Amino acid sequence: MKTGLTILQLSFCLSLIVVVSLSMGMRPETCDHYECPTYEMAEAGNGYEIRVYKSAVWMSTGPIPAPSMTEASKTGFQRLFRYIQGDNKSKTKMNMTAPVITQTTQGKSVYTVSFYLPKKNQQNPPLADDLHVQSWKPTYVAMRQFSGYVTDAIAKKEAAALMDSLKNTKWIVHIEQSKGKSPEYLVAGYSPPFQTTARVNEILVPFTM
Ligand SMILES: *[C@@H]1O[C@H](CO)[C@@H](O)[C@H](O)[C@H]1NC(C)=O
Ligand SMILES: CC(=O)N[C@H]1CO[C@H](CO)[C@@H](O)[C@@H]1O
């Protein structure tokens, strides 16, 4: 009887913890160890989260032709990894950050992979012949998080689920209006390739209000 009560109390406490951590949003744990772009959470919805990202500077590959998004991500990541190890015009070494973002060009098998520049390198990004700087203005983003290794099919399915969860919300009209101006969706990877468990990925749909 006494044990029963204790377990009941314990599960009550645990459910409180779950509620509290949900209301703090879904900030990936990777961002405790690596620098990540900063944002404010506007809403934690059912199956989605709305974030307002601050302006940020990214270093991007040129368009990578590849048979799949996952192939392009690998190729892009390898180039950007050499870049932060000093393969750039000023031989500057940079710390790893998160996430690495893969951008799809609608209807084409061509992808752009981007690395979030550490704050201290954003003012004066080390240059490289085959990479270019992308400055992102502050933007709203609809986000859905998922685990595991990303495949093209999984990314497509998660993006559809995100759009589904946004139906009948106040955001959808703004997202629809932003179509064409922003890419369909971005895939953000937070976990290094060798990490096999608790991997974190996000589908991001940028939009303007
Ligand atoms: C990497 O991060 C550490 C800890 O924040 C910092 O001390 C170090 O200077 C950084 N290294 C580079 C190359 O920016
Ligand atoms: C692509 C590119 O610009 N690479 C350069 C990066 O920096 C190294 C070291 O200075 C150069 O050798 C590369 O050509």
UniProtKB/TrEMBL annotation:
Keywords: Signal. The keyword Signal applies. Residues 1-25 form the signal peptide. It comes from the Eukaryota. It holds the Pfam family SOUL. The keyword Signal applies. This is SOUL heme-binding protein. It comes from Eruca vesicaria subsp. sativa.
